[in-house]
Amino acid sequence: MTISLRIIAFTLASLTTAMVQAQSYPSRPVRILSSGGAGGPNDTQTRGLAQYLGERLGQNFTVENRTGAGGVIAGEACVKAAPDGYTLCTFGVNAVSWNPVLTKMPYDPIRDLVGVAHTGFIDSILSVHPSVAANSLTELIAAAKAKPGAISWASFGLNSTGYFYIEWLRRFRDAQFLHVPYKTAIQSQQAVVAGETMVNIYAAGLTLPMIKAGKVKAISINSEKRSPDVPDVPTELEAGINLPLGSFFNLMAPVATPREILVRLNTEILRIMQDTKFSDLYVKRLGFRNANMNVDEYNDFLRRHRAGFEAFARELGLEKN
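The chain above was modelled as a monomer; its predicted structure follows.
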């Protein structure tokens, strides 16, 4: 057999092996490492996806919470796992775009992991404890300027949406809030409900019940237009604030995971996201907006999003620590 024929034969054999591998996947249970805290939007949606994936693919998909360190604990475990499709991981925007820019990490999410599926953008509501006198973002900024450090703002860590808002408002609006970091996003919102802190920005879908119950007061919403659920709450754009801090969640895998497995998972997830029952429970209710990206589109989006945040960090003068 000539060298050319050998190469062709090897290529065909490799393609056949990959196709068989994808068709037989999964042949055993799959675990998903979740960087989100139990009960939060990421964790809630991931558990819904795990259930539906299990039903569609005939194997158990289990979710393991690995919270802390801004997603690094879950990410490092995922990077070290075998790239065979049986360990996946789910993150928020902070773990993929923000942390690598601002924190020295033992791995790089874009270099050492690969995107499986974008599971949706999510709008957030800036809310305050009912005792706070401010009823608009303009009034809240004015109160923070009048008494620097007197108004506490809960976040889920240094590299989080709330933290970047605080830094931007300090630098460009001369408004100084007291930053109070918590381990998870849901803990930061619970702190406002309990009156431990005064301000937080959190997933719109999960904040709405608290607003309706009078436990928090909505100040603004981080979205392109007003929400029909809270039509009286203005967008931040209406207050003259346009920051590249929109949240999204995603599913990733170790970088060498076979493409055929990534494509199969992506295809199934996009179908699940369009399912009416799933959408009502795990998309609309949580305030998600579908992205509908294939594997290549999603990984290109991740690279572009990282570059955009790098420019934002330079604007704020934030340095890697």
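Residues 5-18 have pLDDT under 50 and may be disordered.
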